[in-house]
Amino acid sequence: QEQNLALAGYYSALPVEGLRVISLNTMYYNLEWCPDNTTDCTSYAGLPREIDPMGQFAWLEEQLTAAETADERVFIQGHISPGRSRGFDDLWFEPYQLKFLEILDDHSGVVEALFFSHTHRDEYILFLAREDSVIHNLSTMFVNSAVSPRSDNNPSFRVVFYQPSTMHLLDYAVSTLNLTDVLTSGATSVSWEEEYQFTTEYT
Length: 203
Known about the structure:
By secondary structure, this protein is an alpha/beta fold. It contains five helices and nine strands. It is 22% helix and 32% strand.
């Protein structure tokens, strides 16, 4: 674990019995990622790429297989999410996104949820697959907004609730800070307010 983290920035942890948290370094999959030995990063998007940068996909499959063997549930987290940006541009190089979805499909029974960020948008995304004309959900990805307001968003954070005995997600709540109110009032202290709770807002 220490070697993977030091050399490539990915790792896994077992914070409580029955739960495996896998943290991916998704910078390698981003269209704008530029390796150290590339001098012209503006043209790198069109160059051939490694099939499995830093062996992370192979490692991810090993981790998910180990979780299945140990009867664990898995949370997968990372910074740059698969999918699209605020401007609807692809965030991952397409072959990497397809490979990731293939791995999710192979191990969907053990992956409880995905947690990503980067877009500064509060959203959740369903990864769907079709089998014998039946559509089923491979996994759900929760994309966090940001504490930083650099993308014209109010700062926010999400608190996730889960069942300790099964590790199944139960609910989540998002709290925000209204910057307009803070700036116009000249307040010297601020108060975060709960914006919504998922089970109340969507049921």
